[in-house]
Design a protein that fits this description.
The protein is an alpha/beta fold. Helices cover 42% and strands 11% of the residues. The longest helix has 17 residues. The radius of gyration is 21 Å and the shape is globular.
């Protein structure tokens, strides 16, 4: 008579897949990755920008200035350089994403706050990672940060195809399908993001939203722009460009930009959901001017520590 008990190997595999920490309660947390769980503005986003611009330049056979203008155009029209490159140039999404996320020294680029894993484990509810980044990159960052075991599932951009079309965040169809597949009622889900434009897009879907602002920085100038082509006869050492950047920042500060402009600045934080920026490494990156909590944001915090503490306090 054969035993119905699972083999020790299957038991160990099941235990490895079970997420660590407090999974009690009805809340399901849908966590973004870059600039939400780690500081991507420090090194990763600038590197992604350079790699994406270089990829566009290779495909188009053009210089960096032209590639930068194309990226701005595609971002404004489609919300992502990748979608424009697929539509107009037939690029392979996997090849584009792989080229934009090749980091031999990734471990040296990832910055996380101390105690991140502990705060995630204490946060009550199920936790799913939902990122527009490619899967290999997302899993590598989670491993380096020491938080892979906190998530029951990783939903990367490779899993965001809907009816034959790539639908990354903030597409509502993709999120509705994800919730349906995971059997999650919208009112039980909380989307945790740094990109406020994503949260705004999902307003009215029934999900709750949490805005993480602790890692937000803008790359000055803070709004979408095109990198001008340098005249062939001029060998600019960068000093004039730096002076122009400082002048732009000073002008913005003097104008004391209104709430709408400030909010737009804060959305320019992800390498693709923000304006594509192609700038030299010496351009200063400053902390964003974060406006008050918009009406479509349910929770506004700076860190996972604040999120965990607030949820414990409210009993959610």
């Amino acid at each position: 008579m054969s035993s119905s008990l699972p083999s020790p190997r299957r038991v160990r595999a099941r235990l490895r897949r079970r997420p660590a920490g407090d999974t009690s309660g009805g809340t399901v947390w849908l966590f973004d990755l870059d600039n939400t769980l780690h500081d991507a503005s420090h090194a990763i986003f600038p590197a992604i920008n350079r790699l994406m611009t270089a990829y566009v330049a290779r495909v188009l056979g053009c210089d960096e200035a032209t590639a930068s203008r194309v990226r701005v155009d595609y971002w404004q029209r489609y919300g992502a350089t990748l979608l424009g490159m697929i539509r107009h140039h037939g690029v392979d999404p996997a090849d584009f994403l792989r080229a934009a996320h090749e980091f031999p020294a990734l471990a040296e680029m990832v910055r996380v706050r101390r105690g991140l894993a502990a705060h995630l484990r204490r946060l009550p509810g199920r936790k799913i990672l939902v990122t527009n980044a490619p899967q290999d990159y997302a899993r590598a960052v989670l491993e380096i940060a020491g938080i892979r075991h906190c998530f029951e599932r990783v939903v990367a951009i490779e899993q965001m195809w809907v009816h034959g079309h790539l639908r990354p965040k903030p597409d509502r169809r993709m999120l509705r399908r994800l919730l349906a597949q995971a059997r999650i009622a919208p009112h039980r889900a909380v989307l945790v993001e740094d990109t406020v434009s994503h949260l705004k897009r999902y307003a009215g879907t029934g999900i709750r939203t949490a805005w993480v602002t602790g890692y937000l920085r803008t790359v000055a100038p803070s709004r979408p722009h095109v990198v001008p082509a340098a005249p062939a006869a001029v060998h600019d050492d960068g000093s004039r460009r730096d002076a122009a950047v400082r002048s732009t920042l000073a002008a913005e500060d003097r104008r004391r930009a209104g709430h709408a402009v400030q909010e737009r600045s804060v959305t320019l934080v992800a390498a693709e959901t923000q304006a594509p920026q192609a700038q030299p490494d010496n351009v200063p990156r400053v902390r964003a001017r974060v406006p008050n909590r918009p009406a479509y944001v349910d929770i506004k915090v700076q860190s996972m520590h604040q999120l965990q503490r607030r949820m414990r306090r409210t009993g959610s």
